[in-house]
């Protein structure tokens, strides 16, 4: 097994033995330097204990929506079971997983799981990509989650492979800027777009999180572009667990 491909047999073994892990990455308030929340990051390992990139696993699972749901739901159970106490939790949720049961109401298993979690507030992160259908699904998810008092965030904004839906970005509570923003901080035309997104977010009462922060100079950059929170490997992870 490697970081580019996972065979069907390896995938079956991973699911049967639940080689699932979770990592909690702090989201830090730039002004107070306090931890505002933790993002729950899915982790997977092979039989030798080597990490497998989550993107590889989820890409393979998309061919089987119910299996995708099964793995995603087990991941969410694990993430909530080991979540840090009394801190908001950001949780990624694949649109296809959410809709795989055909329920977009009180009977949706993910919605029931989130509503039953009483230890802290949950913020659901939605990922936008090049599929217009994902934006349509995201809008439906945001509407249902909002009706149940669950906040939402849009992830990977400014990632070159992702699409920005103006309708989605208007409805979420948090905008998460992809780590590409840090990598392209000297690209003036690109930064004009980033600064416009941040200005819009604040004017609309939304909060902005900059991902990919790994150095103190990245912190200075985040302050200069006026983001609210930062996230990245500069900050110690709270917990790392494998089943």
Summarize the structure.
The protein is of the alpha/beta class and 243 residues long. It has a single domain, classed as TIM Barrel.
Please write the CATH class name: Alpha Beta
Helix content: 25-40%
Task: Compute the number of helices.
Answer: 10
Radius of gyration: 18 Å
Q: How many strand elements? A: 10
Mean pLDDT: 90
Could you tell me the CATH topology label: TIM Barrel
Please state the structural category: alpha/beta
Number of domains: 1
CATH superfamily caption: EAL domain
Largest sheet, described in full?
A: 8 strands, mixed, barrel
Query: Architecture, according to CATH?
Result: Alpha-Beta Barrel
Low-confidence stretches: none
Measured distance between first and last alpha carbons: 19 Å
Word description of this protein:
An eight-stranded mixed beta barrel has the order 1-2-4-5-6-7-8-9. The longest helix is centred in the N-terminal third of the chain and has 17 residues, at 65-81. The protein has helices at residues 8-16, 54-61, 65-81, 95-99, 109-115, 132-147, 166-171, 180-183, 188-203, 216-224; strands at residues 20-29, 35-45, 51-52, 88-92, 122-127, 151-157, 174-177, 207-210, 229-231, 240-242. The mean pLDDT is 90. It starts with 7 loop residues before the first helix and ends with a strand. It has a single domain (8-236), classed as TIM Barrel (Alpha-Beta Barrel), CATH 3.20.20.450. The chain is built from ten helices and ten strands. With 243 residues, the protein is an alpha/beta fold.
